[in-house]
Amino acid sequence: MLKVLYFGRLSDLAGRREEQFNLPERITTLSQLKMWLRKNRHLGEALDERYIKTMVNQKLVHEDLTLNGDEEIGFLPPVGGG
Amino acid sequence: MLKVLYFGRLSDLAGRREEQFNLPERITTLSQLKMWLRKNRHLGEALDERYIKTMVNQKLVHEDLTLNGDEEIGFLPPVGGG
Amino acid sequence: MLEILDSSFDPGERLNSFSKTSGNAGGIASFIGRVRGERGDVSGLYLESYPGVTEKGIQSATDAAVKRWALVDVLVIHRIGTMSPGEPIVMVITAAEHRRAAFEACDFLMDYLKTDAMFWKKQTGADGEKWIEPRTEDYKDRERWT
Amino acid sequence: MLEILDSSFDPGERLNSFSKTSGNAGGIASFIGRVRGERGDVSGLYLESYPGVTEKGIQSATDAAVKRWALVDVLVIHRIGTMSPGEPIVMVITAAEHRRAAFEACDFLMDYLKTDAMFWKKQTGADGEKWIEPRTEDYKDRERWT
Q1: What is the pTM of this model?
Q2: Per the domain annotation, does C143 fall within a domain?
Q3: Phi, psi values for residue D96, rounded to 5°
Q4: Which pLDDT score, from 0 to 100, does residue C40 have?
Q5: What is the span of the domain harbouring residue D77?
Q6: What residues 4-63 of chain A have any CB closer than 8 A to a CB of chain C?
Q7: Beta strands C88-96 and C73-79, pairing class
Q8: Residues of chain B predicted below pLDDT 70
Q9: In D, residues 28-47, which contact C (CB 8 Å cutoff)?
Q10: Nearest residue, CB atoms, A82 vs list C48, C56, C113
Q11: Which of A48, B69, B77, D93 could be joined to D30 by an S-S link, Cβ 3.0–4.6 Å?
Q12: Contact in structure between B23 and B51 (CB atoms under 8 Å)
């Protein structure tokens, strides 16, 4: 199962902070998954914004990659604590 | 009465932290007083060291001046707290 | 040491217990960041982290600071969850032999926490809820260290 | 606020009470300077001030800092008398809207206290008593502000 985490304002858009599901049919890459989430999770173009970072299995990824379907995927708006 | 205060290492040399006395006879200026203390308080050349500051009535003085005999005079080695 | 807490903490008590265990260090610098209540328009703040990832990032920054400034000890405490105006969000304490090292390391870690640490902040105020992202000033502060 | 004390104080307790009264300030920076006990050769420290003059000098520096960094609040506590290794000698706490101001003002005041404040320090150690005067490094730190 895929685990998807939405942080900051993305969780408001997606209506959830995390979810687990099986990789939808015909989807094999991260970019395809983003397209799918855009439509099915009302994320619009949010995931494609320049400042949104993506982590796969808790590591930042900067390029597209093939998914097995058991990854943890996090979508991260600009961060900042304190 | 004159009040003289010795701070830091000067108090060790003078053997006291402060003293009060009448302006010795024939002494009318700060520089004369320093000469007198040099001899009478075992201060050697300590008071003339470049880094020793002098305060008269709690104000720094950089030049010689006339004394009335009722001043508070402080001799201050380099300072530093914390 | 690093603690991500979902309940409040006592800065003074933390400072004292840190001091006790930081041995001979001549200087201890600290910083507390609190929820602002400017003009009374902020009623609450909510912070979330990415558990595991957030800690790992802060730990790397802390390790780098210990090395760069030869710190004797360091403590980072960061709140998550819901907070009210005036409550501490973050506290950094650094101990070093000399004060310049303690100050600089504390300052560096605060810059890291403000701009690179993985936290997301939502503010509740008069005009509803709003996610807050770093100010340009925060990024500029951080660039002083590179 | 300024306090010259001839008995010990509790830094954590001071930090907490300062925090309570500094209202909305977003950031609170602090520094504690302690008696060093390097290689166990320092057994005690004695500090003296010039009562009245010392306070006036620190007050001027504090006023300058409040003005320059728009501080919300500031507290300087400085010990005089006899102290043991590990004991706090000095504590500076600054509160400001933004952290840069709080840090810089705290740092500035510590530089002032180290090099310009009217204190004289005598150290008791393995080789007897010794008056300590500022290090070159302290003067260099201070010059950053002019």
Answers
A1: 0.92
A2: no
A3: -145, 165
A4: 64
A5: 2-137
A6: 5, 7-9, 12, 17, 51, 55, 58
A7: antiparallel
A8: none
A9: 28-34, 36-38
A10: C113
A11: D93
A12: no
